[in-house]
Amino acid sequence: MITRQHVYLLVGALALIAVCVAGFFYTFEQKWVTETTPSTGEARYNRFYALELTLENMGQPSSSSISMARTLPLLKPGDTVVIGDDVGRITFDQATALVAWVRSGGHLVFSPMAYTGHGVPLLEQLGLLDVRQGSFLCASLQTDAKASADQKPPETSLCGPGFRLRPSILAQASVTVGNDDKGLAFARVPMGLGTVSLLNDIGPISGERLKNAPEQEFAWRLLAPNFGRGHCYLLYELIGTSFWVNLFLRGWPAVLASLLLLAGWMAARSQRFGPLMPVPASHRRALTEHIQAVGEFLFRRDGGRSLHRLACDSVLTRLRRRDPASAMLKDAELYDWLAQRSQLESARVEQAFRSPANAAAFRISIHTLARLRSHL
Known about the structure:
The protein is an alpha/beta fold. It has 14 helices and nine strands. It has helices at 4-27, 49-57, 68-71, 92-103, 121-126, 167-172, 213-222, 243-250, 252-269, 286-302, 305-322, 331-342, 346-352, 359-374, and strands at 62-65, 80-83, 107-110, 136-142, 155-161, 175-179, 183-191, 194-199, 232-235. Strand 6 and strand 7 (183-191) form a beta hairpin. Helix 11 runs parallel beside helix 14, helix 12 (331-342) packs across helix 13 and helix 13 (346-352) crosses helix 14 (359-374). The longest helix is centred in the N-terminal third of the chain and has 24 residues, at 4-27.
């Protein structure tokens, strides 16, 4: 039966639930949050992967590579080469071919890093850098990207070791960014029919920084000399074609796993310190052991009487086969004849044919019977 008290409790519970729901929706705020996940696949190791996709979306043919030797035969006037690795890895022959291509109408983009031109084939062939070394500097570049009213004009920065151009080259440069004290952060120099663009930081056109509008505009201006004319080759690393270099730089997980498997196999096959398994039993004459076991069983069963009887029968059977006439002898005559034949005492021969009373008598009887059998 539902009473008034039950109704009050039900109404109170419903009111409490309504208050909790209202409070939740009053304080709850739905908000979309974008989380940047770590790069996967090719984007994890190719710093120019985003730049390559952007150029393809803009209709500019482009491709990424790690081999200068495979890229050089493909270069034509109007193409662009962007080097994102240490230019000191370029050989003399490759540098000569690269400079000749630039003079024929190519566009080369790279970072001289902290080099001044000595000992680096590409920089020596180009002959652009001064012997004086610049210092670290950060140069801010303002772009035409749109910004909100309460924000500063969008800009990108080039941070890295500055470089210096030779005075004659500096006078020919079409674009320079930097100062006289620390050096230059960016320079564009015409060379023959082509162009060379040097920058102290390759970061603005690498990886996730291309998500920002200022970096996108800077990349477009950086590749402007030959944009839309030829192919753009993006060398994110200069590993070369050496199998061993690729194996140790790219395939080290497989090499490490193979070494661990080899070490495990060697450990399993190597000699251990002390036996881990019981020493195998030495070679045994199983037939002899079986005969001995059967003899011990028969001796324990009836005190050796059956064995003694078999031994006696064996001697008499052999005697009948060798000397049928003597087989007709009985008792004392037989014992005397066997004693004479085996040169034993007649009493000992007679005792051997009697049933043994104990183990000692059994051994003596068997020994005597065996000797008798051997003389027949």
